[in-house]
Amino acid sequence: MPNTLPSKLPDVGSTIFTEMSALAQQCQAINLGQGFPDYPPPEALIQAVGEAMRQGCNQYAPMAGLPQLREAIASKVMAQHGRSYSTESEITVTAGATEALMSSLLALTHPGDEVLLIDPAYDLYAPATRLAGAEAVRVPMRAPQAGDTTFRIDWNRVESALTPRTRMLVLNFPHNPTGLTLKIEDLDALEALIARHPILLLSDEAYEHIVFDGLTHLSPVSRAALAERTVLVSSFGKTFHATGWKIGYCCAPARVMAEIRKVHQFTVFSVSTPMQAGIARYLPEADLAELSGFYQKKRDRLLAGLKDTVLRPLHSEGTFFLLVDTRALGTEPEKTLAVRLTREIGVASIPVSAFYADPARPEANHGLLRLCFAKLDATLDQGLERLRGLEARMAG
């Protein structure tokens, strides 16, 4: 073995989610950082998976996914977005949204290509782009300002970042970490953009069924022109409180999906057969519309409890995350504060700076931490109890 081993990702170590969860465990902190529920999937779904195992669904599934699950996905997408996908050539079941995103980036981008990421961006996108040999180009949202406590996309700035080398724009709505959702005017802007530029859209919609206050999730695939350029990615793990099952899917026009499947078949070939069979049985009966109300109650519980702290919440339109403004505690870097809160207060969070190219830069530090409210009410209440009076406790 050589003394040195060149790395394809020399700047990448453990993710911030792994790091903060490990610290939370070490400090016996309430983990409001990493985005996973602390409650089980629906009992009917667990029973469906168990029954699939007992009935012999334990060997390899077809590479593209069980036909009955692809049929269920096609029906769901048609009902939700009015877009028809062929179960034979345009839908693939993947090892979570993660594999769908990775396989799409590896299949569809090439050395010399550019991939536009909108900051703050989920931490998978840039390393996956680099592994494909392409270059990530970061376009920041406008950060919250006085009198406006939301992030906003500047589509003119996005378009100005496009070059002849731009191959793909990665979208993530409902947005992790900001909770922002797409509006009609955003789809209008995207339609105008792709009319002028021959790019693909990779749309990460893992939180598609978690939107609040009467909003409706708007996917690019709801517009015919956008759908022809879009790879739609979603996650049953997020939808059914089963992140450890790692079952997701992607939908795309046949010519695009053919390339994605070339990578998928040599990455995992196929994914867990009994999980697929159980989801296929459960999905047509699932009340997906109920999920937004379920999580809105949790968001509102966290919002109400934060009124008794110095942390000021930003508005979350979707996902199971809420950002809090921590500037009442000072101006130290977000990660430093997140570590202190974990060690000294016993509540773990995620610094929003981790979603930027360089978390240490001032442009990445807006005094914001991400809290996950996909937790039991008792967990949220315990975390809120620890956050009360934190200003005086941390000063001491």
UniProtKB/TrEMBL annotation:
GO terms for cellular component: cytoplasm. It comes from the Bacteria. Keywords: Aminotransferase, Pyridoxal phosphate, Transferase. GO terms for molecular function: kynurenine-oxoglutarate transaminase activity; L-aspartate:2-oxoglutarate aminotransferase activity; pyridoxal phosphate binding. Its cofactor is pyridoxal 5'-phosphate. Residues 30-387 form the Aminotransferase class I/classII large domain. Belongs to the class-I pyridoxal-phosphate-dependent aminotransferase family. This is Aspartate aminotransferase.
